[in-house]
Amino acid sequence: MQELKRALEQEQPRINAALARHAAEPPAGSQAVARLVLASGGKRLRPFLTLLTGRILGCRDERLYTLGAAVELLHAATLLHDDILDRAETRRGRPAAHLLFAPATVILAGDAMLAKALLMVSAFGDPRLTGCISEAVMRTVDGEIAEFDILRNPDISHQDYLAVITGKTAWMLRASCELGAVLSGADASLIAAAADFGLELGIAFQIVDDALDFSSGTGKPRGGDVREGKVTPPLLSYIASLAPDEAKAFRERFRQGPLAEAEAEAVCAAVCKQRLDLRAKELAASHLASAALFLKRFPPSEERALMEQILEYILTRSH
Ligand code: FPP
Ligand code: MG
Prior knowledge:
Oligomer: single chain
CATH architecture: Orthogonal Bundle
Bound molecules: farnesyl diphosphate, magnesium ion
CATH topology: Farnesyl Diphosphate Synthase
Largest sheet: 2 strands, antiparallel
Helix content: over 70%
Structural class: mainly alpha
CATH class: Mainly Alpha
């Protein structure tokens, strides 16, 4: 895992330079918000995936950085919108952008960043790249809508949950990998393997993220998802662990509206005590195993070994 950390730290300055360059281009109105959200940290996992996928397939084209920067810009735009939709007050430990700028400015800056990202990719003149990023935007939005449709519904199925996270998170990670593969000039079957790899990795990433929401030590208050009415695997396992009458009462309470701090805390404590997060981790591990199989279709390389470490990191990260 040390090599992964080193390789990521080595790439971050160049990724950040590409991002800063594009964020400083017109339109002027969105620049302050873009600068704020881009300066607030983030590991730059998505651009890193673009670089690694391209290089695994033999691409040495410097324009991999542009594609990576486009995905990161898009990701940053989704976070701006997401924090408004979730009424979140903080992002990465700092005040959310909509508390520092007018919410209208933040929404519109997000729109401009989205358009900028699409413009950056369309400048390559390859409809496969433009199609890939455009579809990822569409699927991300669709996942968010699906999440709102099932908010405060404790009776959703596992499939409903998977559909939400595949859309809202996994498609953007899928695009991160597919863009690199397309630029490498690989044949269609390898491009498809790169896309499938990214999708499975993305699903696992969000499952782990949702499991971590129940534990302390992540840098944000635990139980945020439960309070917001988001139904994730640990919560479904928690409901399943209750006696029938308790489960019925909890379902009714959950549907009614936001849980109080103490109610959410009690759910988190029960999830941790019964280690219900481990069930979610097993689920994530099965998606990571599928991702690993797609990865095996590529020739062994230093970059492929780093990708294997990313799969391990996703499962073992604690924040
Ligand atoms: C974080 O989820 C949010 C996403 C992964 C996607 C958000 C996407 C949109 C709002 C779609 C529209 C935006 C654009 C520009 C296309 P989370 O709320 O579970 O995670 P969090 O704890 O990081 O907030
Ligand atoms: Mg959110």
